Structures are given as structure tokens and as C-alpha cells.
Amino acid sequence: MSKQHSSVRAYGVLLNKGEIALVRSSNPRHQPPLWWLPGGGIDFGETPEETLEREFIEETGLRIGNPRLLHVVADLRSRDNGDKIHTVRIIYQVDLVDGELTHEVHGTTDHAAWFDVDQVMDLNLADYARHALDEVLAKPDNN
After folding, report:
1. Which residue of 25, 70, 100, 102 shows the fewest CB atoms closer than 10 Å?
2. Is 143 domain-assigned?
């Protein structure tokens, strides 16, 4: 019998010197590889902003700051086992504080990379990430 799950997650769009930081799904069934924004599930007692800081360090090694709310989106999807997932995604634009780009080990992502803004839309992007990047890149002050 299938189950239903809800998840609240926080993600960040990090644009720095004409490049965007993205992370790649570690799921080998994603072909071509699926890329999305750094971020993830909000732990009990965490604020979305605290989640962003923690997830950026875990997934990219980068410290971020100055989160600015872009939008909140929700989506429904089914897992291979039939379970249904309702995900609420809180998406921010953030600034780079410091750090060196590193890859997460044994997580939902396995690679972090900077992509030129002119190339990022050619990637296999998660729908929510594509929408958020469209919004950020349409702002005149981000070009």
C-alpha cells in the first residue's frame, strides 16, 4: 500500500561573478545527470535560513549569507515504490561569504560545480531549480 509524505525544504540560488553554484544528484538513474540548487530538508527546530547555511556547507563546502526570499513552490511526485511525496520548497537568493568548493560524500548529491550563467539552462535541471534560475537571471542587476 502506498504512503503519503510531506517535506519542507530550503534551497539557495548562489550567483557569484557570472557563475551559479549547483549540485548533482547522486541517483545513478538520473540520465543525463540531474542538477539542482544546494539545499535540503529542514531539520526539527531549524529555521529555513539555518537549513540553507548547513546544507550549503554539507553539499558545497561554501559559506553563504544574506538570504533573500525568492518564492515558495510546492510539487507532488511519486516514488518508484508508489509512495507519494508533497514537497514545499522555500527558495532564497544568497551571497557567497567564503569557502572552497567541495563535494558531498554519501549524500543525495555527489558533485558540486560552478556553471557559467550562459550554460546553466542547457543542463538537465530539476524543474524548481530551472524556475528559480529563470527568475534570478531575468533580474537586470544579476546580469
Report:
1. 100
2. no
